[in-house]
Specification:
Length: 396
């Protein structure tokens, strides 16, 4: 992937390079070299080819390390070289040794600049850089933890663009790279397996894990049938549509009853519908009382007596059960076994959650004890991960 260079802020990278200019070269056992914490999620690709080159031609560039003053050395440039030396059975390596930086900014920029200069800009690499930049900003920027997902993406994009001097980490691209974090490994590996653009893979959305696996199989089948053809974004989208068609539920129009995932739906004739809020009508007709034309019964409250001219009659006025109104037009009743959560209930829960979270944030900024602040920060990070996962599911 080629990035457009405009480099508006190269001075900071030069300052970071000058900070390690005093380093010296020495041979260090590989057992004493440990990885940088920033390199946890970095892809280690093409190690076999690098190992073969080192076997034939030797190590061209020494590994760059920090002296940790405890007998160990932390690598900040050369993780792939160290892995290749392990692969061919080497026990030591020539290293550039420098003092550990006094500031986290210098340490992070040194690691970032080194990787940008040497690594292929695959989607896996860019996703790892974005994740490590987010972790760095969480540690060094006290306001970053309170930002929304969109604000964080824009902050990460702004930081990387300013420090690296190219437009490869635009807001749009950061969103696309982050979407790949939710894909299965086989899906992400298509980029290096068939030299497919990582951003094109990021644009293939809205598939569950089973659909992604089927998608991977179809891409591999296409590559076998067309070994010389380039697998473009258009090809990927066509394969995705084919996967969605094959995995969509099939509906037989001649069946009156069908079973769907998580709920059962049965259709019945409109005349068989019995409204649940009314009692059914009796099967017999009661004889209506016959009154003389001149007899009029006044309206009385329940339990009072009616006194006639010649005799007293006990009349109990009772309230009749209302009769269900007849539907004006035929309808079809649908009985659902599994009822989804009502929107009113969900909105009520959402309102309660929002109020509780606002109160939590107001109280948290007033915390003074270091242990309490750490506990609050851990809780926020946990909630942020859950919210990010929920947001990813909502936007597909």
């Amino acid at each position: 992937m080629a990035f457009k260079r405009f480099n508006p802020n190269a001075g900071k990278l030069e300052a970071a390079a000058q900070a390690v200019a005093s380093r010296h070269t020495t041979s260090i056992p590989l057992s004493k070299l440990k990885s940088s914490p920033h390199n946890i999620d970095m892809p280690m690709d093409a190690i076999e080819a690098l190992a073969e080159d080192i076997r034939k031609n030797g190590l061209h560039v020494p590994i760059s390390v920090y002296d940790m003053k405890d007998g160990t050395y932390q690598i900040w440039s050369g993780h792939r070289r160290k892995a290749a030396l392990d692969m061919i059975g080497k026990t030591s390596a020539e290293c550039f040794v420098s003092e550990y930086p006094k500031s986290k900014e210098t340490e992070f920029l040194s690691w970032l600049e080194s990787n940008e200069a040497q690594r292929d800009k695959t989607a896996a690499y860019c996703s790892a850089v974005i994740k490590q930049t987010e972790n760095y900003l969480l540690e060094t920027d006290s306001d970053f933890v309170f930002l929304t997902v969109d604000q964080r993406v824009r902050r990460i994009s702004s930081y990387l663009t300013n420090e690296l001097g190219h437009s490869g980490y635009s807001v749009t691209n950061v969103y696309r790279y982050k979407s790949l974090e939710k894909r299965i490994p086989e899906f992400r590996n298509l980029e290096t397996e068939y030299k497919i653009s990582g951003l094109s893979l990021a644009d293939v959305k809205s598939m569950d894990e089973n659909q992604q696996m089927l998608f991977v199989e179809k891409v591999r089948g296409y590559a076998e049938q067309h070994p010389e053809a380039e697998i473009t974004k258009k090809v990927l989208l066509v394969i995705r549509e084919e996967v969605l068609r094959e995995t969509s539920p099939q509906i037989d129009e001649q069946e009156t009853e069908m079973t769907m995932p998580d709920e059962s739906v049965t259709c019945v004739p409109a005349e068989d519908v019995i409204p649940p809020s009314y009692e059914p009508e009796p099967d017999f007709e009661e004889e209506a009382p016959v009154y003389e034309e001149h007899t009029e019964l006044p309206e009385l409250p329940v339990g009072e007596e009616v006194t006639g001219p010649t005799e007293t009659v006990d009349v109990v006025v009772r309230q009749e059960t209302p009769v269900a109104p007849e539907p004006s037009a035929p309808h079809v009743s649908v009985h659902v076994d599994a009822v989804p959560v009502k929107s009113s209930i969900f909105l009520s829960q959402l309102a309660s959650l929002t109020d509780g979270f606002r109160t939590f944030c107001d109280n948290m900024v007033q915390v003074q004890a270091e242990e309490d602040r750490k506990a609050a920060l851990d809780a926020i990070r946990s909630m942020r991960k859950q919210l990010d996962d929920a947001e990813a599911r909502l936007i597909g």
